[in-house]
Amino acid sequence: MPHSTVAAAPAAPAMRDDPRHPLYLGGWRRSAKADVKEFARDDFEEPHRKRRQAILAKHPEVKELYGNEPLTAVIGAAAVAIQLTAAYFIGCVWTDLHWSAVVAIAYLLGGSVSALYGVIIHEAGHNLVFEAPLWNRLTGLLANLPMVVPISQSFRRYHLEHHQFQGVDGMDPDMPLDAEVKLIHNSPLLKTLWVFCYSAMYVIRGAVMKKKPQRWEAYNLLFSVCADVLIVRFMS
């Protein structure tokens, strides 16, 4: 029987119980009880490569999607333009707009547009928008423009470290700090608030790990401060 036929067959339950299988989900105890505070840990190898192998074995056509996509920057620029235009009209033109309408626009339009920025910053962090790293960094800064908090260059730095040191305590910036685990544990409310603050946690974890800010993080801070000042000056 050809090997490709075997690879295309559904994974048997026994394979999914094998820690080496890409679809293995772990054997730790799962609980939603608020009094369970321990952090789930395992000793599996880095999962991204296994997932890639599993996906390509079933869908080799995915390889056709590999490469850079400059259109991402165009979409990012359009999103920034939409959000800044809305900010200008609400702050300078529709000055008598009811507060409920402002909240609705901020939630429906602003929230929807803002959801794009995280994806764009992620793609730029992996140099998947342009081939040249500089243009990817600039794309990240562009997407960061309406976000108030400087995050794109810190995300790029720490996310790449996450891929390099995935799951290693004290080195993987995606791993929660001991203080986070103790504070949040299994509280649904605290988890919800934690998700809202997650972008800032990259910077906080970096500070706790005593990582010195890099040059592009300083550029990001300066860029965001200047952008925030201009937005307040001309759009409010």
Automatic annotation (TrEMBL):
<protein>
    <submittedName>
        <fullName>Sphingolipid delta-4 desaturase</fullName>
    </submittedName>
</protein>
